[in-house]
Design goal:
Blueprint (H helix, E strand, L loop, with lengths): L1 H24 L1 H35 L5 H18 L3 H11 L1 H14 L6 H22 L12 H7 L1
Helix pairs in contact: 1-2, 2-3, 2-4, 3-4
């Protein structure tokens, strides 16, 4: 419920600011600014999204969890959605989500508010579980160990058709 109230108040404030600035600078200029910020946001999302995806892939290949990259991706999506919404307040917050330095500052603020990232110890526990699972899979591939399961002989399959 509090998040719904916050979103409603943010939207209302965004429209009040849009209409008050629009009445000062004119309708055409306001529409032009809203459209330009949308295109700038799309360009930044594309550029930052590709680099974030590349960094996440590198970290995964190195055996690390790309937690910072996941947060960056979420900030890019959120920023892009804000840039698509008409309004100067949402555009300013959306651009802040897309710019790397401002995004890092916001992530530090979220960490201060209690958002926690995945710690190295949790990853090491997950990695050891994966190694045990891989060992189990490799052991089951050896011909010495029996396989459990059902089978259908060729004779049974030809009788069914």
């Amino acid at each position: 419920m509090p998040i719904l109230i916050f979103i409603s108040l943010f939207t209302l404030l965004d429209f009040v600011l849009l209409f008050s600035v629009g009445s000062q600078i004119g309708l055409l200029t306001t529409l032009l600014l809203v459209i330009v910020t949308g295109f700038v946001g799309l360009h930044l999302i594309r550029k930052e999204g590709v680099s974030t995806f590349a960094r996440a892939r590198q970290r995964m290949q190195a055996g690390e969890i790309p937690s910072n990259e996941l947060l960056t991706g979420a900030a890019l999506i959120f920023g892009g959605a804000l840039l698509m919404a008409p309004g100067f307040l949402s555009d300013a917050l959306g651009l802040a989500c897309l710019l790397p330095n401002a995004r890092q500052l916001m992530l530090k603020g979220l960490a201060w508010l209690g958002l926690k990232t995945v710690h190295k110890q949790q990853y090491q526990a997950n990695a050891s579980n994966q190694r045990q699972s891989q060992r189990h899979d490799q052991e089951s591939e050896h011909p010495d160990t029996p396989l459990e399961g059902d089978f259908i002989s060729r004779d049974d399959a030809s009788r069914r058709h």
